[in-house]
Write a structure and sequence with these properties.
The protein has 296 residues and is α+β, with helices and mostly antiparallel strands. Helices cover 26% and strands 27% of the residues.
Length: 296
């Protein structure tokens, strides 16, 4: 049963700068640099049956994200991965979501941050499907976001940085207020980019099309699903996709560590079916993360 309390008031343990601390004591100072200047980077990952899927890839991306923002974590990929496993065990969980987050501390206040110390914390909790399973079975509905993904020369778009999610939160809130489940975001050029926290895929005549990730994350789940599709002999084309092309696609789905693989019924004025290929890839992904061999 998932814990319904607020995230600051729970039982359990959080790995914090190299040691386990009681959940309620995993706190930072109000003048922490990351709180004021968004110098935090994070990961979202899932454990299935006690195994964290693609753990080392997530740990490596966390370190890379920090380096893109200009600081180096004093923990290696191996140490971060070991800490993730430790916190999963300490909390007695096997099927769970994990959130490693790294940030600049409170040693210096102002835009400059050379004197700040890097910190790292890892929390885990039970978290079911990102979208309600009964809803996802018939496809979710996406609004079209007003905000656009920035150009790579205006923001560190290849870092999983907290600041990049400000417009994602704003877009998702607007979508939910308008009766949608999430929002599809375009980029600064007006091209199709992604949803607020998941990559986008489209299907036409048995071929999968997905936007080139040149201003947003090339997600770990995204790459996994592309590999699963190609193993089945399905052609996957990474390319520029313009909004007017969406009328010609028959299916759409999203991928992400939280969203896993979720079918889409509509995005703005464009409608899609939840087709066999989307369902098959969702089943293949579920088999893979749970250690089963996908059925052919």
């Amino acid at each position: 049963m998932a814990d319904e309390r607020t995230f600051d008031d729970r039982d359990g343990w959080i790995w914090f700068d190299g040691k386990m601390v009681p959940w309620r004591e995993a706190n930072v100072h109000v003048l922490t640099h990351a709180l004021h200047y968004a110098s935090a980077v994070f990961e979202g990952q899932r454990a299935y049956g006690g195994t964290i899927f693609k753990l080392d890839e997530h740990s490596r991306r966390l370190r890379n994200s920090a380096e893109i923002l200009g600081y180096t974590l004093p923990w290696s990929v191996e140490q971060i991965s070991a800490a993730c496993n430790e916190v999963l065990t300490a909390n007695g969980l096997t099927d769970a979501y994990l959130r490693p987050i790294a940030w600049r501390g409170s040693e210096q206040m102002g835009v400059s941050a050379q004197k700040t110390k890097p910190h790292l914390a890892i929390a885990t909790w039970e978290w079911g499907k990102y979208f309600d399973p009964t809803l996802a079975a018939k496809g979710i509905r996406l609004d079209i976001a007003e905000w656009r993904r920035p150009a790579p020369y205006t923001a560190p778009t290849q870092s999983k940085a907290s600041g990049l999610y400000m417009i994602a939160t704003m877009s998702k809130h607007r979508a939910e207020d308008r009766g949608y489940h999430d929002a599809l975001m375009f980029d600064w050029r007006g091209q199709v980019a992604e949803a607020t926290g998941a990559n986008a895929f489209f299907i036409k005549d048995g071929v999968i099309h997905t936007p080139t990730p040149d201003c947003f994350l090339d997600g770990i789940t995204r790459r996994t699903v592309i590999d699963l599709a190609r193993r089945r002999g399905v052609e996957v084309i990474e390319r520029t996709i313009w909004p007017e092309e969406l009328a010609d696609f028959q299916q759409m789905f999203l991928t992400g560590s939280a969203a896993e693989l979720t079918s889409v019924a509509s995005a703005g004025p464009w409608n899609f079916e939840v087709g066999d290929l989307s369902r098959q890839l969702a089943a293949d992904y579920d088999d893979l993360v749970n250690g089963r061999t996908p059925n052919n």
